[in-house]
Amino acid sequence: MKRLFILLATISWLGLSAQSPEAMEKIEAAKIALITERLELTPEQAEKFWPIYREFGKQRQDIRRDFDQARKNFDPNKASEEENKKMLEMATQVKERQLKLEQEYADRILKVITTRQLNNLRKAENDFKEMLLKRIRAQQMQRQKQQQRNDGRLRDRQN
For a surface tag, which of 29, 34, 55, 111 has the fewest beta carbons within 10 Å of its beta carbon? Predict the structure, then answer.
């Protein structure tokens, strides 16, 4: 757990920029550390688990990306009733695809880990997201405070 906090502190220090591959690698390393720890993966399990989990993550990301692309230029206030209906249907189809993907990968992953570990995986993923969001919010607040201090100093110099 100590290693995880060190990684998260490093991520926070680096800055969470989507353009920074180094930051993204650090985030991924922290996620792997947390999941490995929470699931108590044996080396044999880890060797089989991580390729399946990465493949699942990529496919989950692809589904999200497809839907985000479709929504990119969609404005429900300007769309016709038919276009709004199609978007709602697409959202339902995306959820169905996600559910089917989760079921498929749960079956594959359960050949490697126990049901207890699979339940812990879902909790660990949610906990990691929460921790990451808290870090991002804290970093944003820190930047805002710093900006306010800088603005105050600038005003003081101008007076």
Answer: 111
Query: Amino acid letter at 24?
Result: M
Distance CA 117, CA 142 (A): 36
Amino acid code (one letter) for 54: R
d(Cα 33, Cα 65) in Å, to the nearest integer? 26
pLDDT tens column, 3-49: 555 445 545 544 544 558 888 898 999 999 999 999 999 999 999 99
How many Å apart are CA 35 and CA 3, to the nearest integer?
13
Q: How far apart are CA 121 and CA 135, in angstroms?
A: 21
Work out the widest C-alpha separation in the chain, in whole angstroms: 70
Q: What are phi and psi of 16, to 5 degrees?
A: -95, 80
Is the backbone of residue 131 left (phi > 0), alpha (psi -120 to 50) or beta? Answer: alpha
Distance CA 101, CA 60 (A): 8
Start-to-end CA span in the chain (Å):
50
8 Å CB contact between 11 and 21 = no
Residue 73 DSSP class: T
d(CA 39, CA 46): 10
